[in-house]
Write a structure and sequence with these properties.
The protein has 7 helices and 7 strands. Helices cover about 30% and strands about 20% of the residues. Bound molecules: S-adenosyl-L-homocysteine (SAH). The site of S-adenosyl-L-homocysteine (SAH) has 20 residues, from α1 and β2. S-adenosyl-L-homocysteine binds next to α1 and β2.
């Protein structure tokens, strides 16, 4: 379970913004993720009206699914383009407002109020800004975080979770010496030490 040369790899925010500008977004799933459908019951656990967090959200269509089921969705994403594409591709009217606690931070909220997407780095967030969550859908998030930032990311995620919350995490398994990532390979042992 050695992650090899991926340990040192860093993808900058600028590089992510460029991926969006160039349309290099092979990670985006137009049809949504089958694993969310499969494990939806685990996430919801019979509860309704949950607050669900989408770290590093891109324009994930699953945000629309969960909002349509009556949940409150909060996402965070550095690319403003991604967030605008999300709202326009689902024909959702939204408004934009500054986030006073975050320099340069903006929040895009559907006019219906149930989808709030923060345009900033996830590391700018805290529970005093976004509150705590009953559920997390982590797909393309932990595996997209630079390996050197994983501990910081996991501690932040833990600080954003309510006591009785559920966290669905999607990872990928492959030989980390054959691909540079992202998505990065995160060994099971590391997931255990990050989240306990
Ligand atoms: N979860 C989404 C997107 C995965 S790709 C999906 O399933 O489709 C990872 C995304 O994280 C990219 O859109 C990138 O722009 C964004 N990102 C990278 N670093 C970030 C950071 N520090 N804070 C917020 N978003 C970030």
């Amino acid at each position: 379970s050695d992650i090899g040369s991926q340990k040192e790899r860093v993808v900058t925010e600028e590089e992510w913004l460029q991926k969006w500008e160039m349309g290099n977004i092979g990670f985006h799933k137009e049809q949504g993720h089958p694993l969310l459908q499969k494990y939806l019951d685990v996430l919801l656990n019979g509860r309704s009206g949950l607050r669900i967090f989408f770290p590093l959200c891109g324009k994930a269509v699953e945000m629309k699914w969960l909002a349509d089921m009556g949940h409150n969705v909060v996402g965070v994403e550095v690319s403003e383009q991604a967030l605008k594409e999300f709202f326009s591709e689902h024909s959702l009217p939204y408004y934009e407002e500054p986030v006073p606690e975050i320099s340069g931070g903006k929040m895009f909220q559907s006019t219906s109020g149930n989808i709030s997407l923060y345009c900033c780095s996830i590391y700018d967030l805290s529970s005093s800004i976004v509150g705590k969550f009953d559920g997390v859908w982590d797909r393309g998030a932990l595996v997209a975080v630079n390996p050197c930032d994983r501990q910081r990311y996991a501690s932040l995620m833990i600080s954003l979770m309510e006591k009785n919350s559920s966290y669905l995490l999607v990872t990928v398994s492959y030989d980390p010496n054959k691909h540079k990532g992202p998505p990065f390979y995160v060994p099971e042992s590391e997931i255990k030490s990050l989240f306990g």
